[in-house]
Amino acid sequence: MKKICLFIACLTLFFNVEAAKKVTWVIDAGHGGRDVGCEGRLTREKDITLAVAKELGRLIKKNIPGVRVAYTREKDKYLTLQERCDVANNRGAALFISIHVNSAENQFARGTESFFATNVPMKGTQAGKSELLALLLQRQYLGHGRAISRGVKQRELYVCEHTNMPSVLTEIGFISNLNEEAYLNSKDGQKELADAICQALKEWKELTKGGSVAQRDLRNLRYTHYAPVSLVALNEEPATEEPAPAAAPAEAAVAQTTTPPTPVAEAETEPEPAKEEPEIVPTVVPEEPAQQPTPQAAQQPAKAPAKSPTTAPAKKDDKPYFAIQLMNTATRLKEGDYRLKGYKAVTYIPSGERFKVIYGRSESYKEIKNELAQVRETFPEAFIVAFVGERQITTAEALEMLKVRSTN
Would you say 256 and 71 are in contact if contact means Cβ atoms under 8 Å apart? Predict the structure, then answer.
């Protein structure tokens, strides 16, 4: 009897040690519940992301040893952005990947893109891991038959900025494109996408096993994947669905240079979510604003908020204040544009070659937080930002400055 008890104790200890060696990866299926995300002719984003997330989890468990999979949601459930971050942060996850589907006013827009953020508290060995995964994702999408990579970009995305581990948000296709919608909604398409992501994760795990990311790997990947890439260029066939227009100034610079572009650091040192090997000449694809409402949604704009905030931050005011970032756009939007969903008197803050669309202004963090709860009913990914004059700072810095002022 003693021998049996000893054997069981040893077996239990062995499995506990093996379990302790495992790392946790969190898979976030974008949207859910009352937040349906983008809508196509027949499908909704929340359903596609959940199907791909579950298939990805199955493949990881089968093919990547030493990894424990966790989901932010496993059913059609609504979660706030912070709740999604909490799942990863509370589990001490080693990786966070958020799966989304794109939409655009241009019904011919297609392709995949991946995003990462740099204004997160990662230094030393953590630096570059998010960017690396985004680049690998884009390379794998091309390798799995996706014709167009829209590139790797750095953006302000709440789930990437508020998770304490390497984090990437990936857009797996355009629901507004009839062909891509059919692909995204098919079992074969979902399995192929999940396999592409799984292979990228497997490669990422191997490349980061030493604890850091080799700058050489990043440079090699950046060369072809910071600019959008088309497999059509490899085959020397003309584009049939979406002719490539003249490159925008920034994109043209990427296409013509032989050295990898250097990301532009923004106010909070945040990158533009990233994207991805063979040595080819990139074909620029017109970039559509991510997650735009469909034309049907445009016909039903939300009511404009009762408050009409200041339209421009004071330049000489050194007192910190808080506001709400609604989105990030390539150009200033005209008043009444359906993408603003009825919001008026917004401020446009230059951010590299794009603009941050800012709404509201208050020196009270509590007040702006209460307003954020209402704004998120229309803009689920809106989040709080802080400024001193026109200079953006972190909310933590703003709160600390206000605390010092109150004690003086």
Answer: no
How far apart CA 223 and CA 226 sit, in angstroms, is 7
CATH 3.40.50.150: does it fit domain 17-256?
no
Cβ atoms within 10 A of the Cβ of 366, count? 9
List C-alpha distances in Å: 147 to 109, 140, 153, 170, 232: 12, 11, 18, 16, 7
Residue range(s) of every CATH 3.40.630.40 domain in the chain: 17-256
Identity (one letter) of the amino acid at 248? Answer: A
Q: How far is CA 380 from CA 90, 154, 157, 291, in A?
A: 22, 19, 11, 11
In 13-125, the DSSP E strands lie at: 23-29, 67-71, 95-102, 112-116
Instruction: Order the strands of the 347-351 sheet from edge to edge.
Output: 347-351, 354-362, 320-329, 383-388, 391-393
367 SS3 class? helix
Instruction: Give me the phi and psi of 351, to 5 degrees please.
Output: -140, 90
Angstrom CA distances, 42 to 20, 88, 106, 122, 180, stand at 44, 32, 18, 41, 12
Place of tokens 């296709």: 173
| 221-262 pLDDT tens trace | 887 666 565 544 333 333 333 333 333 333 333 333 333 333
- Which of 28-42, 82-96, 138-152, 235-249 has the least mean pLDDT? 235-249
What's the pTM value of the predicted model, to 2 decimals? Answer: 0.57
What's the mean pLDDT in 363-376? Answer: 86
CA atoms within 13 A on the CB side of 101: 33
Per-residue pLDDT, averaged over 345-363, amounts to 86
- CA torsion angle for 105, 109, 112, 118 (degrees, to 10)? -50
With contact defined as beta carbons under 8 Å apart, do 273 and 116 qualify? Answer: yes
Whether the predicted pLDDT of 46 surpasses 90: yes
Q: At residue 332, what is the residue type?
A: R
19 token code pair: 């379990």
Please name the residues in contact with 194: beta carbons below 8 A apart, sequence gap of 6 or more.
52, 55, 56, 58, 59
